[in-house]
Design goal:
The protein is α/β, with parallel strands linked by helices and 202 residues long. 28% of the residues lie in helices and 29% in strands. Helix 1 packs across helix 2.
C-alpha cells in the first residue's frame, strides 16, 4: 500500500486493504491473467476519500495499490458536515484526521458547490487569504462574506465578479489598517463596489 504525497491520512490503510480484499476473493489462487486490476481500481476510486488509485501486480506476484487522497480545502457546517475538495467535489469528514481549512456556513447546496468552491479555491491558493480567512458565509442570494482570523469585522464580497480586484482592495485595506492600527475599529468592510472599499465603524 502506497499513499502518494506525505500529507495526513484521511483514510486508513486498513480501509483500503479491506476494499481490495472485498473485491477479490482468493487472489493467491488467481492467475495474473484472470486478476481484474481495473475492477479493483474502480472499487478504490468509488470511495469518497480517494481521488485516484492505481493497482498493479509486481513480477513476484505482490499486489500493490497506489492511492492519492482527496485534498480538502473547506469544511461545510451542516446537519452532516463535510469537506469540499480541491476539485470542487463532496468529501466526507474523516475519523482519522481533521483538516485545518476555512469553515463554510449559510445556504449551501451539496449538489451545487460551484460558488463556494471558487472562493474556497481562491482562499486555498492565495497566501494572504490562506493565512487569514477562517470562515466563508453564503447567503441564499449567493452573496459571500469572509471572516478573518483575529478580527471581528465581516468582509462583504458580494458575488464572484471582479474577484481579483476585490481581493486586491482587501489586501490594500488590511495592510494600511494594520499599519495604522485601526482594524479593530470596523464592523464591516464592503468590497461589493468596484473601485472602493466601504467600511462601517464598530
Amino acid at each position: 500500500m502506497k499513499f502518494k504525497g506525505g500529507e495526513n491520512l484521511y483514510i486508513a490503510a486498513q480501509t483500503v486493504s479491506k476494499l481490495l480484499i472485498q473485491n477479490y476473493k482468493g487472489v493467491k489462487n488467481t492467475s495474473k491473467e484472470a486478476l481484474d486490476l481495473n475492477k479493483l481500481e474502480t472499487a478504490l476510486n468509488s470511495n469518497e476519500m480517494i481521488k485516484s488509485a492505481e493497482v498493479y501486480l509486481s513480477v513476484n506476484g505482490v499486489l500493490t495499490a497506489e492511492v492519492e487522497q482527496k485534498k480538502p480545502i473547506a469544511r461545510v457546517l451542516a446537519k452532516t458536515s463535510y469537506y469540499i475538495d480541491d476539485q470542487g467535489s463532496y468529501m466526507p469528514l474523516s475519523s482519522y484526521h481533521s483538516a485545518r481549512v476555512p469553515l463554510v456556513t449559510g445556504k449551501i447546496d451539496r449538489n451545487n458547490l460551484n460558488n463556494i468552491y471558487k472562493i474556497a479555491q481562491k482562499v486555498n491558493t492565495d497566501v494572504f487569504l490562506k493565512k487569514n480567512v477562517i470562515q466563508i458565509h453564503q447567503t441564499k442570494n449567493n452573496d459571500l462574506f469572509l471572516q478573518l482570523r483575529g478580527y471581528d469585522f465581516t468582509v462583504q464580497l458580494g458575488g464572484l465578479n471582479n474577484l481579483e480586484k476585490k481581493i486586491n482592495n482587501l489586501k490594500a485595506f488590511y495592510k494600511k489598517g494594520l499599519k495604522d492600527n485601526i482594524l479593530n475599529d470596523y464592523k464591516t468592510v464592503n468590497l461589493k463596489f468596484d473601485s472602493q472599499v466601504v467600511c462601517t465603524k464598530a
